[in-house]
Automatic annotation (TrEMBL), chain A:
Span list, region Disordered: 1-45, 488-507
Skewed-composition ranges (Basic and acidic residues): 1-13
Entry protein name: Iron-sulfur cluster-binding protein
Coiled coil residues, start to end: none
All residue ranges annotated as the Lactate utilization protein B C-terminal domain in the record: 424-492
Pfam families the UniProt entry points to: Fer4_8, LUD_dom, LutB_C
4Fe-4S ferredoxin-type domain span: 326-394
Native source organism of the sequence: Rubrobacter marinus
TrEMBL record, chain B:
Family matches, as PANTHER family: LACTATE UTILIZATION PROTEIN C
Source organism per UniProt: Rubrobacter marinus
Position of the signal peptide: none
UniProt protein name: Lactate utilization protein C
Pfam families per record: LUD_dom
Residues that span the membrane, as ranges: none
Gene3D superfamilies per record: NagB/RpiA/CoA transferase-like
Length: 507, 220
């Protein structure tokens, strides 16, 4: 097999973290749903991983205790985040590392590029890192004349294809083996390549080995960093993480400020929760833990930089209900169980954070008020499967509902007359008044029962008339039944409500 | 830079105004109700380690102390290893005759280059710990293990684990490694089977960037 060329040329499409507006979830989902290849790839993949995760978790008699410990450790950290970050900074410095602080993506990119340039690096090797996807680091580096090579197999695939990730753990989940074979033959110039996964993996091995051996600067994210010791950790499978964090003489790690954990021993919780939730393995093939720079030991980078990035995280922290979203350890279990994600795939979310966790993280990180991110809290049936599998017990449905409220309030407060006269808004406010008053509620039920007959003749309302049609665009509606529960209760008891209450509540 | 630091810390304090001033981190309860030690008999713990390491496609053999040098020789021969990387502190009795030994020294100049490691046929090491619950080998860059690159660039890793090094559960491993990390700041690597990826249709493929073959000899 010969590999003759490669330059990452294609640009990934913009998302919620780029400049400019993104489409809404509904708009993008329509596109994804019409791609039957995508739906087949995704259906197969999510089913496989769901089943495997079930087996890996069932093996653990203390799974619930671990989840609770994970949640509590994150809660402790977030409530005292300033203390832990200062402690982390001291620990990393003590171990010979350097610490940088970045208020936003631009500042983070500038710091990373500055370090690479100070070493004259024209090429850097990268471990899969969503934080750097969030900041669009690769594009920024390219603008500075530095080529960033993604070394995770899936990241390489989507970089070559000029696409974005569609899954936190397996970013190229939307591509099947024959699509990957074609891509490698075209972009890497590989001849006589089969579509056998080991063959495809070997093509990546040959191509990237030279990069690992020659790169002066490695760039990684962090799964965790311990405040007590300064020990940073990268959890991976392929060995590209070990390569990037060990071989280049300079290592830059960009991490969100929420990734800090208090003590070394806390790894005993997260290193049990993460592998089983994400790849459904007892343990992932490789985990690297390093503390500062090599300091003359000859083991690993001589220079280590840790960049601590906010980029909207402190806004998430300020919301007492939304704060738990920062517990996320990026396992992707919630994506794999989500009936919405399973059908639409990750691209419909227009964010580096797709799926249920993305639906709550994205609008909080970028802020409410943009149509794309604002549509994400509605990308859910609120079935609660995501909450059940979450290894750090993020109550995703609770945050989704909370954010829907924020989106609506934002429209009412900031939206001006047009938003306030929006049919849904007017209808919801009218319904709010009706639901709060028994007489109005009973009257409305009677009126609806009489008024609905032309719509509900088939037993289901497929389309509401006029301005209300939006409601039935993506869902059917059950008609008001012949006999309501309240009517039935009256005939059964022969009187008004059982406790004799005469209040106005529609209990 | 320090302006960014001060601002981020100020934002955090503003965002956590609901946290009472008097509350200390330890005041936020963390219930560690999970298992911290494995009560199973030693024999069972070691047996489970062997099984689970093998489940991750590592080749696992159990050998006696006296049979170890022979087992190492046989494994290297079967693999066709001619150039073998050896870390500092590896017991001399483990190093077989008939192979070219590439010794990594400590200190600058004495170290093998990355190219030398890349061109070698394999590496022989000991380990710091084994974890039975997960089939994991732990390296801590200590005696008979060496720096991380040694076990990363060669395509074949032969690892010797002594029965007494095998712990039951994950928390026991982190407790055992604490001194190395806190005291010496050495790097730790967890290895569970050979390098792998599930990136193509979620099919597990062994062997991407790290050693594509991992062989484990359990001595006891």
């Amino acid at each position: 097999m010969t590999i003759i060329r490669h330059q990452p040329e294609k640009k990934a499409p913009p998302d919620a973290f780029s400049e400019g507006r993104t489409p809404t979830f509904e708009e993008s989902a329509k596109e994804s749903l019409s791609n039957s290849q995508l739906r087949r790839n995704l259906g197969k993949a999510t089913q496989t991983i769901r089943r495997k995760r079930g087996v890996a978790v069932a093996e653990m008699p203390d799974w619930e205790e671990l989840r609770e410990a994970g949640r509590a450790l994150k809660a402790r950290t977030l409530r005292h985040l300033d203390d832990y970050l200062v402690e982390l900074e001291e620990s990393v410095k003590r171990a010979g590392g350097q610490v940088h602080w970045a208020r936003d993506a631009e500042e983070a990119n500038r710091i990373v590029a500055g370090i690479a340039k100070s070493h004259g690096a024209r090429e850097v090797v990268k471990v899969k890192s969503i934080a750097t996807d969030e900041t669009k680091l690769n594009e920024y580096l390219e603008g500075e004349g530095i080529a960033a090579y993604e070394t995770d197999l899936a990241e390489l695939i989507i970089q070559l294809a000029g696409e974005t990730s569609s899954h936190i753990l397996v970013p190229a989940i939307h591509k099947n083996r024959s699509e990957i074979r074609e891509l490698f033959m075209r972009e890497l110039g590989v001849e006589d390549l089969s579509d056998d996964p080991p063959d495809l993996a070997n093509a990546a091995r040959l191509y990237l080995r030279k990069k690992f051996l020659s790169a002066k600067v490695g760039i990684s994210g962090a799964n965790f960093a311990v405040a007590e010791t300064g020990t940073v950790c990268v959890v991976e499978s392929e060995g590209n993480g070990r390569m990037c964090t060990t071989l280049p003489p300079v290592l830059v790690t960009l991490m969100g400020i929420e990734k800090v954990i208090p003590q070394w021993r806390d790894y005993e919780v997260f290193m049990q929760l993460l592998p089983r939730s994400s790849t459904a393995e007892r343990m992932n093939p490789y985990t690297s833990f390093w503390t500062g720079a090599s300091q003359g030991s000859g083991d690993g980078p001589e220079e280590f930089h840790l960049v601590l990035m906010d980029n909207g995280r402190t806004d998430v922290l300020a919301d007492e209900i939304g704060r738990q979203s920062l517990n996320c350890i990026r396992c992707s279990a919630c994506l794999n169980v989500c009936p919405v994600y399973e059908r639409t795939g990750g691209h419909a979310y227009n964010s580096v954070y797709p799926g249920p966790i993305g639906a709550i993280l994205t609008p909080q990180l970028v802020g409410i008020g943009e149509p794309g991110p604002d549509s994400l809290p509605y990308a859910s049936s609120l079935c609660g499967a995501c909450y059940e599998v979450c290894p750090v017990k993020i109550n995703i449905p609770q945050v989704l509902i909370h954010l829907r409220g924020k989106v609506v309030r934002h429209k009412q407060d900031e939206g001006g007359l047009r938003e306030r006269l929006d049919p849904e808004n007017v209808a919801m406010q009218a319904m709010g008044r009706i639901f709060a008053n028994r007489r109005l509620y009973e009257g409305a039920q009677k009126a609806a029962h009489v008024g609905q007959w032309p719509l509900a003749r088939s037993g289901t309302i497929h389309r509401l008339p006029g301005k209300l049609a939006g409601w039935t665009e993506a869902r059917d509606l059950k008609p008001v039944p012949e006999q309501t529960f309240r009517d039935w209760w009256k005939t059964r008891r022969g009187g008004p409500s059982p406790n004799g209450s005469t209040g106005d509540g529609a209990s | 830079m320090s302006a960014a630091r001060e601002e981020i810390l100020r934002r955090i304090r503003r965002s956590t105004r609901d946290v009472p001033d008097a509350e200390r981190p330890e005041d936020v309860p963390v219930e560690r109700g999970y298992r911290e030690t494995d009560d199973a008999p030693r024999g069972e713990i070691v047996e489970r380690f062997a099984e689970r390491t093998a489940e991750y496609k590592a080749k696992v053999s159990r050998v006696s102390e006296s049979g170890l040098p022979g087992a190492i020789r046989d494994a290297l021969k079967a693999r066709g290893v001619e150039k073998l990387v050896v870390p500092p502190g590896l017991p001399e009795a483990w190093v077989p005759y008939g192979v070219e030994v590439l010794r990594d020294g400590s200190g600058a100049g004495a170290q093998l280059t990355n190219d030398e490691l890349d061109r070698s046929d394999g590496v022989l090491t000991g380990c710091a710990l084994g974890i039975s619950q997960t089939g994991t080998i732990v390296l801590d860059a200590g005696e008979a293990q060496g720096r991380r690159a040694l076990t990363l660039l060669p395509d074949y890793h032969l690892c010797v684990v002594r029965e007494e090094q095998v712990v039951g559960l994950v928390p026991e491993a982190f407790a055992g490694l604490r001194e190395t990390v806190v005291g010496e700041g050495r790097a730790i690597t967890f290895i569970s089977g050979p390098s792998a990826t599930s990136d193509i249709e979620l099919n597990r493929v062994e062997g991407v960037h790290g050693p594509r073959t991992l062989e484990v000899l359990i001595v006891g």
